[in-house]
Design goal:
Elements (H helix, E strand, L loop, with lengths): L9 E6 L5 E12 L5 E10 L1 H25 L8
Antiparallel strand pairs: 1-2, 2-3
């Protein structure tokens, strides 16, 4: 980490004690101190488990919809009789 300021948030997986992976977003900012130094760091870790579950479900539904559209286009005129 160079200089003072904020750093790009990073997505990564943390490992729980039971071995399960937990997707998280980590954002770190340096807290400015006096005389241009650093007082410390502020870290925020956000659990992305629910978001990742929703994204997976959305991708699955999107694939199903595309497959349904391909099946419909197989009929003459592009739609069911």
């Amino acid at each position: 980490m160079r200089g003072l300021g904020s750093f790009q948030p990073q997505e990564l997986n943390l490992i729980r004690k039971d071995g399960a992976k937990v997707p998280v977003m980590i954002a770190v900012s340096l807290l400015p101190g006096i005389n241009g130094g650093s007082l410390g760091r502020l870290s925020v870790i956000t659990d992305l488990s629910a978001l990742k579950t929703l994204e997976t479900g959305l991708r699955e539904r999107e694939a199903e919809a595309k497959a349904g559209n391909r099946a419909k286009s197989a009929f003459p005129g592009g739609h069911e009789p």
